[in-house]
Amino acid sequence: MIGYITTAETAAMVTDAIRLAQTSRGLEPYWILEGVKITSGPHAGKTFLPCDDAVLSAPLHRGTHPTDYPEFAELVAMLGGLDARVEIDPSEIAQPSIEP
Amino acid sequence: MILRLLPLLLLASCATTPPDSPEQRLAGYPETCLALSATMVESLTRQGVDAETLVYRMVDITKPGSDAGHAVTVYMHPRGQNKLWTHDQLGSYRVRAYRKDPAGIAKQSEIVRGRTWNRITQAQFLNQIPNDT
Description:
The structure holds two protein chains of two kinds. By secondary structure, chain A is of the alpha+beta class. Chain A contains three helices and five strands. Chain B is an alpha+beta fold. Chain B has three helices and five strands. Chain B has helices at 2-11, 32-46, 102-112, and strands spanning 51-60, 68-76, 84-88, 91-95, 118-125. The longest helix of chain B has 15 residues, at 32-46. Chains A and B meet through strand 2, strand 3 and helix 2 of A and helix 2 and strand 4 of B. Strand 2 of chain A pairs antiparallel with strand 4 (91-95) of chain B.
């Protein structure tokens, strides 16, 4: 999984900013991006914010994509830019207490 | 044992989805969507949010014989409002479907993600899949 390792607070701020980008345009929130707690591995305790190419091209209102919105570019820049993304193993976000 | 493995069997063909699709990147992690959903359900439930995992199978109508599986987290947010969301690796999309209609939610989940070519063949909430215990 490709994305950013960040804090829960920063991830929540990104989620709120994406929601605001829609409501400020008079749109009902339709798409948001949430952080997921990392439960194991070297980043345990941090929050993972998915941001792979599929997220960048996620379909939004009227054929648009996240990268079409300047607010999204600002958020990516705040997180360190696309080059700051890392890849983590999905097992790092799995809850060990839950058996699929 | 077969029933216990059913959720994984539903997802087993994540790796067989067509090239160039978003799922292709999951080929190495066929259980990513299920692990992600399990984590989200636990996190949301702790916050008092009504959430559960929906697993489903689908076929690509443009590719005869295709077969794929996926899992999303279905949740109501904000609390007290009749707004239904589905979450996976692409983030959360609001869907318009009945909370207790797994097939309808699965169908809308694919449509809002732009995968209009997929037809749902099976959909079930994970906690409603019987186990052998």
